[in-house]
Amino acid sequence: MGLGGDGDVLRGAKAGEAESGRQSRWRTVLVWFLRLVSAFWLAKGLTAWAVIFGVPGNHEPPFENRLLSYQAIIVYFAVIDLVAAVGLWLTSTWGGVLWLLAAISQLLLAFLFPRFVPMTAWIVGIYIALIAVYFIATWAAENDGG
After folding, report:
1. How far apart are the first and last CA of the chain?
2. What does the pLDDT look like over 49-61, one tens digit per residue?
3. Fewer CB within 10 A of the end CB, N or C, for the chain?
4. What is the value of pTM for the model shown?
């Protein structure tokens, strides 16, 4: 993503840099997009932890009584989703990479193991759209106004 340094968008241009208003707008759009995705991914990670801790109201069997493969998938997403959410919020490069890893791995697991990771066509479409918007906004923020 390379925003010049993690969080430089929020602080403005560095001394001696002449940055066009349009480029600044695209970077601001990218930061807001990353923050919105971060909030949703944080909620997604917390729901995985809710499954692990057995929040009341869940009609599924307890986590410890589920198959080991199901447990591994849930723990994987409980960790990677929260770490990716923090990285996205900080607008860091590693956050974008982890988020892409989490999103693509969930799509692949939903395709390979639909019993453990059920996804509707709407959710798959939303994931693909978010990934496309991420790449387009990143490209626009880096290449506009140069």
Report:
1. 16
2. 999 998 877 778 8
3. C
4. 0.80
